[in-house]
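Usage

Read records sequentially. Each one opens with the input sequence:
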Amino acid sequence: MHEIFGIPPQALFGQLLLGLINGSFYATLSLGLAIIFGLLNIINFTHGAQYMMGAFVAWMLLNWLGLNYWAALVIAPVLVGAFGVLIERTMLRHLYKLDHLYGLLLTFGLALIIQGVFRNYFGSSGLPYRIPDALRGGTDLGFMFMPNYRGWVIAVSLVVCLVTWFVIEKTKLGAYLRAATENPPLVQAFGINVPRMVTLTYGFGVALAAFSGVLAAPIYQVSPQMGADLIIVVFAVVVIGGMGSIMGAILTGFGLGVIEGLTKVFYPEASATVIFVVMAIVLLVKPAGLFGRVR
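and closes with the structure output:
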Protein backbone atom coordinates (compact mmCIF):
# COMPACT_ATOMS: atom_id res chain seq x y z
CA MET A 1 0.00 0.00 0.00
CA HIS A 2 1.14 3.58 -0.74
CA GLU A 3 2.21 5.88 2.03
CA ILE A 4 -0.28 8.47 3.27
CA PHE A 5 1.33 11.90 3.76
CA GLY A 6 4.64 10.10 3.97
CA ILE A 7 3.38 7.78 6.73
CA PRO A 8 3.19 3.98 6.24
CA PRO A 9 -0.51 3.00 6.29
CA GLN A 10 0.10 0.32 8.94
CA ALA A 11 1.49 2.96 11.30
CA LEU A 12 -1.35 5.39 10.56
CA PHE A 13 -4.15 2.86 11.03
CA GLY A 14 -2.40 1.42 14.08
CA GLN A 15 -2.42 4.82 15.75
CA LEU A 16 -6.05 5.35 14.72
CA LEU A 17 -6.89 2.05 16.41
CA LEU A 18 -4.99 3.13 19.53
CA GLY A 19 -6.85 6.44 19.43
CA LEU A 20 -10.21 4.67 19.22
CA ILE A 21 -9.28 2.43 22.17
CA ASN A 22 -8.26 5.42 24.28
CA GLY A 23 -11.37 7.23 23.05
CA SER A 24 -13.49 4.31 24.26
CA PHE A 25 -12.21 4.79 27.80
CA TYR A 26 -12.44 8.58 27.55
CA ALA A 27 -16.06 8.32 26.37
CA THR A 28 -17.23 5.76 28.95
CA LEU A 29 -15.53 7.50 31.86
CA SER A 30 -16.59 11.00 30.84
CA LEU A 31 -20.13 9.68 30.34
CA GLY A 32 -20.21 8.61 34.00
CA LEU A 33 -18.83 11.99 35.05
CA ALA A 34 -21.35 13.84 32.88
CA ILE A 35 -24.26 11.86 34.36
CA ILE A 36 -23.15 12.57 37.92
CA PHE A 37 -22.57 16.27 37.27
CA GLY A 38 -25.57 16.80 35.02
CA LEU A 39 -28.07 15.09 37.29
CA LEU A 40 -26.49 15.54 40.74
CA ASN A 41 -24.39 18.70 40.28
CA ILE A 42 -21.37 17.01 41.87
CA ILE A 43 -17.85 17.12 40.36
CA ASN A 44 -16.82 13.54 41.13
CA PHE A 45 -13.03 13.50 41.39
CA THR A 46 -13.23 9.96 42.84
CA HIS A 47 -14.11 8.70 39.35
CA GLY A 48 -10.52 7.73 38.51
CA ALA A 49 -10.16 5.76 41.75
CA GLN A 50 -13.46 3.99 41.06
CA TYR A 51 -12.21 3.08 37.57
CA MET A 52 -9.11 1.62 39.22
CA MET A 53 -11.28 -0.25 41.73
CA GLY A 54 -13.18 -1.90 38.86
CA ALA A 55 -9.91 -3.25 37.45
CA PHE A 56 -8.75 -4.47 40.87
CA VAL A 57 -12.08 -6.15 41.65
CA ALA A 58 -11.80 -8.01 38.31
CA TRP A 59 -8.24 -9.06 39.24
CA MET A 60 -9.33 -10.21 42.71
CA LEU A 61 -12.30 -12.14 41.34
CA LEU A 62 -9.99 -13.98 38.95
CA ASN A 63 -7.05 -14.66 41.28
CA TRP A 64 -8.88 -15.14 44.58
CA LEU A 65 -12.21 -16.66 43.55
CA GLY A 66 -11.44 -18.06 40.11
CA LEU A 67 -14.20 -16.02 38.42
CA ASN A 68 -13.43 -15.18 34.82
CA TYR A 69 -13.56 -11.94 32.84
CA TRP A 70 -17.20 -12.31 31.81
CA ALA A 71 -18.33 -12.67 35.40
CA ALA A 72 -16.18 -9.68 36.37
CA LEU A 73 -17.87 -7.52 33.71
CA VAL A 74 -21.10 -7.89 35.70
CA ILE A 75 -19.94 -8.32 39.29
CA ALA A 76 -17.26 -5.59 39.45
CA PRO A 77 -19.55 -2.70 38.35
CA VAL A 78 -22.24 -3.88 40.79
CA LEU A 79 -19.80 -4.05 43.73
CA VAL A 80 -18.08 -0.75 42.99
CA GLY A 81 -21.45 0.87 42.23
CA ALA A 82 -22.66 -0.29 45.66
CA PHE A 83 -19.57 1.32 47.18
CA GLY A 84 -20.54 4.51 45.34
CA VAL A 85 -24.06 4.31 46.78
CA LEU A 86 -22.51 4.10 50.27
CA ILE A 87 -20.42 7.21 49.57
CA GLU A 88 -23.45 9.11 48.30
CA ARG A 89 -25.67 8.18 51.23
CA THR A 90 -23.10 8.90 53.94
CA MET A 91 -21.21 11.90 52.51
CA LEU A 92 -22.24 13.46 49.22
CA ARG A 93 -25.92 14.01 49.94
CA HIS A 94 -24.97 16.63 52.54
CA LEU A 95 -23.24 18.74 49.86
CA TYR A 96 -25.86 19.07 47.13
CA LYS A 97 -26.96 22.56 48.15
CA LEU A 98 -23.42 23.82 48.70
CA ASP A 99 -20.89 25.22 46.23
CA HIS A 100 -19.32 22.78 43.73
CA LEU A 101 -15.97 23.29 45.45
CA TYR A 102 -17.04 21.28 48.52
CA GLY A 103 -17.94 18.24 46.47
CA LEU A 104 -14.71 18.54 44.49
CA LEU A 105 -12.60 18.71 47.65
CA LEU A 106 -14.39 15.78 49.28
CA THR A 107 -14.17 13.50 46.24
CA PHE A 108 -10.54 14.49 45.65
CA GLY A 109 -9.71 13.53 49.23
CA LEU A 110 -11.59 10.24 48.87
CA ALA A 111 -9.66 9.48 45.68
CA LEU A 112 -6.34 9.98 47.50
CA ILE A 113 -7.48 7.73 50.37
CA ILE A 114 -8.65 4.94 48.04
CA GLN A 115 -5.46 5.07 45.97
CA GLY A 116 -3.35 5.05 49.12
CA VAL A 117 -5.15 1.99 50.52
CA PHE A 118 -4.67 0.01 47.31
CA ARG A 119 -1.05 1.14 46.96
CA ASN A 120 -0.23 0.08 50.51
CA TYR A 121 -1.82 -3.34 50.03
CA PHE A 122 -0.87 -4.19 46.42
CA GLY A 123 2.23 -2.03 45.90
CA SER A 124 2.92 0.40 43.07
CA SER A 125 3.85 -2.06 40.35
CA GLY A 126 1.18 -3.24 37.93
CA LEU A 127 -0.50 -6.63 38.09
CA PRO A 128 -1.25 -8.59 34.87
CA TYR A 129 -4.77 -9.61 33.88
CA ARG A 130 -5.03 -12.04 31.00
CA ILE A 131 -7.21 -11.55 27.96
CA PRO A 132 -10.18 -13.97 27.94
CA ASP A 133 -9.63 -16.97 25.66
CA ALA A 134 -12.63 -16.11 23.44
CA LEU A 135 -11.06 -12.76 22.53
CA ARG A 136 -7.45 -13.81 21.99
CA GLY A 137 -5.77 -13.39 18.62
CA GLY A 138 -6.74 -10.95 15.94
CA THR A 139 -8.27 -10.36 12.53
CA ASP A 140 -6.44 -9.35 9.35
CA LEU A 141 -8.44 -6.49 7.84
CA GLY A 142 -6.13 -6.17 4.85
CA PHE A 143 -4.91 -2.67 5.71
CA MET A 144 -4.08 -3.54 9.32
CA PHE A 145 -4.17 -6.30 11.96
CA MET A 146 -6.99 -5.83 14.48
CA PRO A 147 -6.50 -7.53 17.88
CA ASN A 148 -9.85 -9.08 18.78
CA TYR A 149 -9.90 -7.79 22.34
CA ARG A 150 -9.29 -4.21 21.30
CA GLY A 151 -12.06 -4.43 18.73
CA TRP A 152 -14.35 -5.77 21.47
CA VAL A 153 -13.47 -2.83 23.76
CA ILE A 154 -14.36 -0.28 21.08
CA ALA A 155 -17.64 -2.02 20.18
CA VAL A 156 -18.91 -2.64 23.72
CA SER A 157 -17.97 0.89 24.85
CA LEU A 158 -19.91 2.39 21.96
CA VAL A 159 -22.95 0.22 22.70
CA VAL A 160 -22.92 1.05 26.42
CA CYS A 161 -22.58 4.78 25.70
CA LEU A 162 -25.43 4.84 23.17
CA VAL A 163 -27.77 2.75 25.34
CA THR A 164 -27.09 5.03 28.31
CA TRP A 165 -27.77 8.12 26.19
CA PHE A 166 -31.02 6.60 24.92
CA VAL A 167 -32.25 5.75 28.43
CA ILE A 168 -31.49 9.21 29.80
CA GLU A 169 -32.66 11.27 26.84
CA LYS A 170 -35.48 9.24 25.29
CA THR A 171 -37.27 7.28 28.03
CA LYS A 172 -39.70 8.11 30.85
CA LEU A 173 -37.06 7.14 33.43
CA GLY A 174 -34.64 9.64 31.93
CA ALA A 175 -37.35 12.32 31.94
CA TYR A 176 -37.94 11.70 35.65
CA LEU A 177 -34.20 11.94 36.32
CA ARG A 178 -33.90 15.26 34.50
CA ALA A 179 -37.02 16.62 36.15
CA ALA A 180 -35.74 15.59 39.58
CA THR A 181 -32.69 17.81 39.13
CA GLU A 182 -34.79 20.82 38.09
CA ASN A 183 -37.78 20.53 40.44
CA PRO A 184 -37.51 17.76 43.10
CA PRO A 185 -40.75 18.70 44.99
CA LEU A 186 -42.79 18.40 41.79
CA VAL A 187 -41.35 14.96 40.99
CA GLN A 188 -41.96 13.80 44.58
CA ALA A 189 -45.57 14.91 44.21
CA PHE A 190 -45.94 12.15 41.60
CA GLY A 191 -44.94 9.58 44.23
CA ILE A 192 -41.33 9.18 43.10
CA ASN A 193 -38.64 8.77 45.74
CA VAL A 194 -36.21 11.47 44.56
CA PRO A 195 -33.42 10.81 47.12
CA ARG A 196 -33.37 7.13 46.14
CA MET A 197 -33.30 8.08 42.46
CA VAL A 198 -30.35 10.42 43.07
CA THR A 199 -28.51 7.71 45.00
CA LEU A 200 -29.00 5.12 42.27
CA THR A 201 -27.95 7.62 39.61
CA TYR A 202 -24.65 8.22 41.39
CA GLY A 203 -24.21 4.46 41.81
CA PHE A 204 -24.80 3.98 38.07
CA GLY A 205 -22.21 6.62 37.17
CA VAL A 206 -19.71 4.89 39.45
CA ALA A 207 -20.59 1.51 37.92
CA LEU A 208 -19.74 2.91 34.47
CA ALA A 209 -16.29 3.82 35.76
CA ALA A 210 -15.82 0.31 37.19
CA PHE A 211 -17.02 -1.23 33.91
CA SER A 212 -14.32 0.76 32.10
CA GLY A 213 -11.80 -0.51 34.62
CA VAL A 214 -12.68 -4.13 33.85
CA LEU A 215 -12.35 -3.43 30.11
CA ALA A 216 -8.96 -1.79 30.70
CA ALA A 217 -7.53 -4.55 32.91
CA PRO A 218 -6.34 -6.86 30.07
CA ILE A 219 -4.88 -3.93 28.08
CA TYR A 220 -3.09 -2.02 30.81
CA GLN A 221 -1.59 -3.51 33.93
CA VAL A 222 -3.83 -3.22 36.98
CA SER A 223 -2.22 -0.52 39.10
CA PRO A 224 -3.28 1.84 41.93
CA GLN A 225 -2.18 4.79 39.77
CA MET A 226 -4.07 3.85 36.61
CA GLY A 227 -7.02 6.07 37.48
CA ALA A 228 -4.94 9.03 38.59
CA ASP A 229 -3.12 9.04 35.25
CA LEU A 230 -6.40 9.12 33.32
CA ILE A 231 -8.80 11.27 35.31
CA ILE A 232 -7.23 14.64 34.36
CA VAL A 233 -7.63 13.83 30.66
CA VAL A 234 -11.20 12.65 31.23
CA PHE A 235 -12.07 15.89 33.02
CA ALA A 236 -10.70 17.79 30.03
CA VAL A 237 -12.94 15.69 27.77
CA VAL A 238 -16.00 16.51 29.89
CA VAL A 239 -15.18 20.23 29.87
CA ILE A 240 -14.73 20.25 26.08
CA GLY A 241 -17.97 18.34 25.52
CA GLY A 242 -19.87 20.50 28.00
CA MET A 243 -20.32 19.76 31.69
CA GLY A 244 -23.37 17.53 32.09
CA SER A 245 -23.86 16.88 28.36
CA ILE A 246 -24.36 13.13 27.78
CA MET A 247 -23.92 13.17 24.00
CA GLY A 248 -21.12 15.70 24.35
CA ALA A 249 -19.18 13.30 26.58
CA ILE A 250 -19.60 10.43 24.09
CA LEU A 251 -18.73 12.31 20.90
CA THR A 252 -15.89 14.27 22.47
CA GLY A 253 -14.41 11.17 24.11
CA PHE A 254 -14.16 9.19 20.88
CA GLY A 255 -13.22 12.27 18.83
CA LEU A 256 -10.38 13.36 21.10
CA GLY A 257 -9.07 9.79 21.23
CA VAL A 258 -8.76 9.85 17.43
CA ILE A 259 -7.18 13.32 17.46
CA GLU A 260 -4.66 12.15 20.05
CA GLY A 261 -3.85 9.07 17.95
CA LEU A 262 -3.33 11.12 14.77
CA THR A 263 -1.16 13.59 16.67
CA LYS A 264 1.15 10.71 17.67
CA VAL A 265 1.65 10.04 13.95
CA PHE A 266 2.17 13.55 12.63
CA TYR A 267 3.54 15.44 15.65
CA PRO A 268 4.42 12.99 18.48
CA GLU A 269 5.83 15.73 20.73
CA ALA A 270 2.36 17.28 21.09
CA SER A 271 0.41 14.07 21.74
CA ALA A 272 0.51 14.46 25.52
CA THR A 273 -0.86 18.00 25.44
CA VAL A 274 -3.11 18.15 22.36
CA ILE A 275 -6.30 17.49 24.38
CA PHE A 276 -5.53 20.37 26.72
CA VAL A 277 -4.75 22.65 23.77
CA VAL A 278 -8.14 21.74 22.28
CA MET A 279 -9.76 22.44 25.67
CA ALA A 280 -8.19 25.90 25.86
CA ILE A 281 -9.35 26.76 22.32
CA VAL A 282 -12.89 25.49 22.93
CA LEU A 283 -13.23 27.40 26.21
CA LEU A 284 -12.07 30.61 24.51
CA VAL A 285 -14.66 30.22 21.75
CA LYS A 286 -17.48 28.55 23.72
CA PRO A 287 -17.01 28.65 27.51
CA ALA A 288 -19.86 26.18 28.16
CA GLY A 289 -18.23 23.52 25.97
CA LEU A 290 -19.21 22.21 22.53
CA PHE A 291 -22.54 20.74 23.66
CA GLY A 292 -22.97 22.45 27.01
CA ARG A 293 -25.48 25.01 28.13
CA VAL A 294 -24.77 28.06 30.26
CA ARG A 295 -26.31 27.43 33.68
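Summary fields computed downstream for this record:
- Residues 9-40 form the longest helix (32 residues).
- The chain has a mean pLDDT of 87.
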